[in-house]
Predict the structure.
Amino acid sequence: MDGNASGEDYENIDWDTEDELEIQNIAPSSSLVTRNAEVIVGNGEASSSAGPSNSNLLQHFLGMGFSEQLIVKAIKENGETNTESILESLLTYAALEDSPDELNPCHLNSPQQQQCVDNGQLSSDYDESFLDDLSESDSWSGSEVAEIASSLPEHEKVLLSLANMGYTVEEASAAVARCGPEASIAELTDFIGAAQMAKTEDVFFEEEKPKISLANGGLKKRKLYELEMWKRKKRKGMLNEEDDVLRLPNPMIGFGVPTDAMVVTHRTLPEAAIGPPFFYYENVALAPKGVWDTISRFLYDVQPEFVDSKYFCAAARKRGYVHNLPIHNRFPLLPLPPRTINDALPLTKRWWPEWDKRTKLNCLQTVIGSARLTDRIRKALEKWGDDPPLHVQKYVIEECRKWNLVWVGKNKLAPLEPDEFEMLLGFPRNHTRGGGISRTDRYKSLGNSFQVDTVAYHLSALKDVFPNGINLLSLFSGIGGAEVALHRLGIPLKNVVSVEISEANRDIVRSWWEQTNQKGNLIHLADVQQLNGDRLEQFMGSFGGFDLIVGGSPCNNLAGSNRVSRDGLEGEQSSLFYDYFRILDLVKCIMNKQQ
DNA sequence: AATACAATGATGGGGTTT
DNA sequence: AAACCCCATCATTGTATT
């Protein structure tokens, strides 16, 4: 396995854990069904013969825009009592069965944007809020939520509830205005549903606003998030120990890493997930609870592959990858990059004190440690000789880990340089240098990027499949981690449609494209939200479909370092995930049609 | 020299898992 | 309890433009 001599690499590896089983061959999307297996059997008969006794329930889901047929099916499967499971099933049906040919290029987290063949409407991920709303007002009387909710005026509570169900504040406000302030949630959703079905939104709502913009409501996002947290807790308590939430594997090696025997060589993908096209989605592994469940549910119930790039290079990078790629015949890029700090940054060895036991760097982020910090540390160390006392050592090590500092002189620590970022992440030297990009922007772009060796290892399975090269749709391309990975794998890039909002990043990729003498075509677009079915069909018509769709959507609102707006998947930037899904689903449909 | 804007520097918490 | 984290904001400094 690990050919490297330094034994410290194994420190965190728990070889005989059983966790690794969790991410693998578990039958996909079984949780919804198996969890309520007994309910299905028990209630199925009664429901099918007599229909739902609770017509209120039916009405309610109708009001949300789901078709009667689907609702009955969902109630059959889940029983009448478990409204949450019903909604979950409805969402799943909608996500899997919709023909989204004519989905608008806007966010799917708002039911307004859903156009389904059967009039079904997707709601957002906020299934738990629905339960609260059905069980009416006393759900607000919990002592915990009281502090949060009590600070809100009554009408804002209602707006918040609706927002949590995926409606925009505009929709919610319009509904309240029409139905009156005393209207129940059910009435309001009925109104909105009717408005949507009539497709006369514009009469009621000025213009489609894809995001749940709480600015208008005067609510702080912070409160929304706290409320979410509380509800999740509450749900856990109510349904006692739901263990269908994804858990992170340990060790985080996915289906295997080059230095390790492949733990799994085969998996069964859900039917709906199978290509063409192949797809590859990436985001941070340590997202708020429930985020990966949602991502997985949207991406055809494919279980994420969680991998830490510390098994590929000298820096940690814990990421989840949802993809439908083959997982046999993987191979790494050569030469294998250095996998310890020592090997990656040999000049630091001379100054590395024996009491700093680190062999791997932590995750390379978008910002670096300050000069003042390293100055403080130097002064603290200079007071002592070669052997500082334990409490000083502890302080220094703590700051080193927090800021990824390395030793560059006696008592002298420093953050990594941008070119060291490039090297550790597997990019060619000076990939992000020059051409008008600032130093801080380099850090930002690199910190947001793929680790090339890791991604290349996963994509390597495609080399045999596409010996003549591929057509690539690259969303949220950034500095082109996927493109670089494919190029280094020797997979020719025929046509690349690359969507990236940052001009600086587009410049970097274009410059790389020219410097590496690419033979194919590079088409750059700026905004995923502008990429609609017409554009896609145009591209796909000209070169015959995409072979691979890669993308890592923004993690701003998921990342742990964000202390201000860690709002989850519905956050301002991170909700662009739904555009990844939208575009992927569009491409799938178009390709099916063309066959 | 005054101004506008871009780049940099410093600071600050908490959710989650082990 | 400890460790970790593709960060946002604002004050300050640097640079270009008038």
